[in-house]
Amino acid sequence: MNAYKTYVRMDASNCLVLEGMPFPEGALLEVLVVDQTRQPEVRTESWRALMRHVQSLPQSATLLDEDIAAEIDAQRSGH
Questions:
Q1: Using an 8 Å Cβ cutoff, are 6 and 24 in contact?
Q2: d(CA 41, CA 38)
Q3: What are the extents of the domains in the chain?
Q4: What's the farthest any 2 CA atoms get from each other in the chain?
Q5: H or E stretch covering 67
Q6: C-alpha angle 14/15/20, rounded to 5°?
Q7: What are the pLDDT tens digits along the chain (79 aa)?
Q8: What's the rounded Cα separation, in Å, for the pair 79 and 76?
Q9: Residue 46 and residue 25 in contact, taking contact as beta carbons nearer than 8 Å
Q10: What DSSP string runs through 14-29?
Q11: DSSP designation for 77
Q12: Cα angle 16, 20, 9; round to 5
C-alpha cells in the first residue's frame, strides 16, 4: 500500500480540494478524513476509555503475556 499524508483546511463551502497528489490519473484511492482539532488530552482520554473497555471484556481476563508474545511472533514470521 502506498500512502500519502497531507493536511487541508475545510473552506466555507465545506469542500476539500486535494491538489498535487503523488498518484497516477485514474488510481483508485481510499480517503480517510480525521478531524485534527481535538485536543491531545481528549484523544488521550478516548484511547484510555477504549483500553478500559477492552480490558473489561471477559476474554481479556484469560489472556496471558505469553499468548500475546506468541501472536506477535506468528505475525512477524508471516503465519
A1: no
A2: 8
A3: 40-76
A4: 53
A5: helix 65-76
A6: 150
A7: 688 888 888 889 998 888 888 999 999 999 888 888 878 888 889 999 999 999 999 988 888 999 999 999 999 998 7
A8: 8
A9: no
A10: S-----S-SS-TT---
A11: T
A12: 30
